[in-house]
Design brief:
The chain is built from eight helices and 15 strands. By secondary structure, it is of the alpha/beta class.
């Protein structure tokens, strides 16, 4: 698991690093190593928040406190557990007051109701000084959630960063210094990457295959394959490298219907 620690008290931050390091040693042969990144300010932790499977936060002395950082993470799309470590701020009371301000909606799928559930369930608490048993319980909870979570793919453009699921990507094409990624719902994004680097990012997923050195496709969106040419469901056609033809044919035979 990837863990982010964000604490503006350097002594507390170092102590949390030590506790997590020891927890990582204990989990080496069970749930695996913990990869720990430590931050002392909000800007740093917000650069790549989707990387992390859990957050341990206590911010007390800056313009943004721990709860406000948690809200920023939720607003950015983070669904991982956010553990607020209680020192001088009574975070449970702050959260309770925040929940009381969320408007009541009839629909359970409204943005307000979703936010209320996130504040109630996604944000957890640890009392400082941190006890090993309680920390382990939080890590077990994060590990359990991680095992149930469908992984996403980070697509980073010049201005926007998207986190998408495997079958939201139709295909990706080299376009100069960018990779043009075509998505479902008539969306696209020019990614700051090479086609090779982006493909290595998605090789853990089962539906992507290269068509040539300039392009890879999601086989679930292939409409037809004839000779050395394939056509996607959106009408886009690609010439197929002979080196990739056999793999594409095998993938199409296993394609989900």
């Amino acid at each position: 698991m990837h863990i982010a620690v964000c604490d503006d008290n350097i002594a507390d931050r170092k102590q949390m690093e030590r506790l997590l390091g020891r927890a990582s040693d204990r989990r080496l042969h069970t749930t695996g190593v913990l990869y720990i990144d430590s931050y002392g300010n909000v800007e740093a932790v917000m650069r790549s928040p989707m990387l992390y499977d859990a957050f341990f936060i206590d911010m007390t002395s800056g313009p943004v406190n721990g709860f406000q950082l948690a809200r920023k993470l939720i607003d950015a799309g983070v669904t991982a557990p956010i553990v607020l470590c209680i020192s001088t701020i009574d975070y449970p009371s702050v959260i309770e007051a925040a929940i009381a301000k969320v408007p009541e909606d009839v629909s359970e799928t409204s943005n307000h109701d979703i936010l209320r559930r996130q504040l109630q369930k996604q944000i957890l608490y640890l009392q400082k000084p941190i006890k090993v048993k309680e920390l382990d319980e939080m890590l077990d909870h994060a590990q359990n959630l991680k095992s149930q979570t469908v992984p996403t793919i980070e697509l980073r453009g010049e201005k926007d960063t998207l986190y998408v699921y495997e079958d939201e990507i139709l295909y990706a094409i080299k376009d100069g210094n960018y990779v043009h990624v075509v998505l479902t719902e008539n969306r696209s994004l020019d990614v700051l990457s090479t086609i090779h680097n982006l493909y290595t990012q998605v090789t853990m997923f089962t539906h992507f295959l290269p068509v040539s050195e300039h392009c890879f496709v999601n086989v679930t969106f292939i409409d037809r394959l004839s000779l050395l040419k394939l056509t996607m469901k959106d009408g886009k056609s690609f010439n197929v490298s002979p080196l990739e033809l056999s793999r594409l044919k095998k993938a199409l035979q296993k394609k989900p219907t």
